Request: fold
Amino acid sequence: MHNPHLSHLEAAHKVLCYLEGTVSKGILLLASSSLALVGFSNLDWVGCPITWRSTIGYLTMLGSSPISWKTKK
Reply:
């Protein structure tokens, strides 16, 4: 880096702490699957007639493995 700052060091430290805490985690990538990155999303507008709340969700896949997901009401 040409002009490193303390914020860069702090960000690197956060990444290293995250990696250290997730060493036992992993992603299963099968040899026969492609490494295509695919995203899915869904929205149910005012899905609950009682609370009038919507539900939204997404899923991100790398090959045949889910790598990120979230749902929220």
Remarks:
- The first strand starts at residue 37 and ends at 44.
- The chain has one domain: 6-72.
- The chain has a mean pLDDT of 86.
